[in-house]
UniProtKB/TrEMBL annotation:
Highest taxon of the lineage: Bacteria
Region described as Disordered: 44-65
InterPro entries (alphabetical): DUF3035
Name of the featured protein: DUF3035 domain-containing protein
Amino acid sequence: MKFGLSVVALGLLSACADEDPKLMNIRTDTPDEFSIMPNKPLEQPEDYAALPAPTPGGTNRADVNPQADAVAALGGNPEAVTSTRANAGEGTLLAHAQRYGANPNIRQVLAEEDAEYRRENNGRLLERLFNVSVYYDSYAQQSLDQHRELDRLRAAGVYTPSAPPDPERY
């Protein structure tokens, strides 16, 4: 009986609110990302049969270079988007990183090696059966103990910035 009265009282109290309820506290007074840069008008072709075949990853006829347009609208240099040359400070870094050669398809190679590693370290039967994530366990041997490394560097006399305390020590 008391529970029913509590529910009715709560319903009546919530009906007295001044504004509409917000779902998960989502606000609508935030900026609209589509109003930042005006869209170009849509064009209808004269003949649909004369259109070129779509090319995945190709350019759009209406927005030939959308990234440069967005950079220009935000006050940046649109030529920097299309430029492949390195900035002045990046030359030394790139030369050092590529000193033993650079594999042009390194992302694909790393993705294949990582997929193979995760396949070999997929967890035990019950972990796979109940879809338990074993991500951190499978990569634990490759992770760095930041606090042990910090202690090692400080003991060697290397200046290191402060770090958060180790929760296991304190």
